[in-house]
Amino acid sequence: MKSKIFKKIALCFASALIVCSVGAVAGCNPETDHPEVRITYEFNGETYAVDYKLYRNMYPHTVRHFIELADANFYDNTIIHNYQTNDWFTGGYTYDKSAYVSKIDNTGLMSEYFEDFSKEDAYSQLFADGKLSASVYSNRMYGEDGKEYVVSEDALPTVMGEFYNNINQEIEKGALTADYGCLKMYYYAKESTQKIYVTPTDDQIILADYDSNCATSVFALQTGVSSAYSEMNYTVFAQLKDTEAFDDLVAAVKEYIENNHSNTASDFYTIVSDVPVDNNDVYSNKPDNDRGILVDFNVPKQPIVIQSVKVTKY
Q: Within a 10 A sphere around the Cβ of 174, how many other Cβ atoms?
């Protein structure tokens, strides 16, 4: 009897090894509650490799979205395009050294830089190619059994906002606070009153406001202990694993401002007004159905570059 049980255990173990081997060959990565990424920043000739812990157990759609973009090398060689005292915004524009340097000296041309090096079209193409998973839909349908369902044709190129003020969604396993070093998925506020459908879980379809479910690729690094962009309205999906490298980056920027701009942060950046964003947005921001909105950026005169975003643990 013991021999038969042992054989069954051995067979199960061997089968498990085969499954794992097949998964490894296929490039299949087991999902964990806390994936990890390394973001390598470059500033003033120095690089800073910063490790982050992501919270898939709390924000599955946001983390999946971020990882899919990272795996597509979408964030590599992008810039901090909007510098705020306690938040730096990135993920939307490619860094072109010669163009950046030449146009930062002529502020009238900076808006042109952002039009030329926007990643919005690349993002839209990733979604069209099926490289980004859907969680937001323009419509829902009913089956013969009367149950609701969504179809891929109605999927929107965005990710649902996983935070409390969106559909009063509770984060059942806790919620992260917008604190120093965290990463937040960001969206530009819309004037649209459009309603859409979000799918927090496989068996949920919820009517919600598009305004809170229109994030694409832009995210924010919080560099202070407080922020106007709190967890109540933005998804805080990652925290620092260790603060040392990030501390060094923040300190380097502050030292640069002190040494080169008399410790005046507003002299460190150029204000670029009326930059068009969300030009591919499927819903109007204005009554006349014009797409996109105009926003202002505080553009660092010395570029802060995202060299790469690499997943180190799935």
A: 9
Per the structure, the count of domains in the chain is 1
If we measure between CA atoms, which residue out of 298, 294, 183 comes closest to residue 234?
183
Structure tokens at 188: 């530009």
> Which amino acid makes up residue 50?
V
pLDDT in tens, 295-311: 999 999 999 999 999 99
Dihedral of alpha carbons 273, 278, 280, 283, sign: negative
CA 223, CA 11: separation in Å to the nearest integer?
A: 53
Q: How far is 69 from 132, CA to CA, in rounded Å?
A: 8
Structure token digits, residue 239 = 């925290």
Predicted local confidence at residue 196, as pLDDT:
96
Determine the Cα–Cα distance for residues 158 and 232; give it in Å rounded to an integer: 19
Tokens of 49: 């490799």
- pTM beyond 0.85, yes or no: yes
For Cα atoms 311, 224, 58, give the angle at the middle one, nearest 5 degrees: 45
| Six-digit token string for 105 | 């000296």
User: What is the span of the domain harbouring residue 96?
Assistant: 30-134+168-185+218-313
Q: Has residue 21 been placed in a domain?
A: no
* 301 falls within a domain: yes
- 3-class secondary-structure state, position 113: helix
At residue 212, the 3 state secondary structure works out as helix
Residue written as token pair 């990643």: 119
Indicate which CATH number applies to the domain containing 296. Answer: 2.40.100.10
More confident call, 193 vs 16: 193
Rounded to a whole number of angstroms, the CA Rg of the chain reads 22
* 188 closest CA partner among 161, 168, 154, 150: 161
> CA 288, 92, 207: angle at the middle one, nearest 5?
55
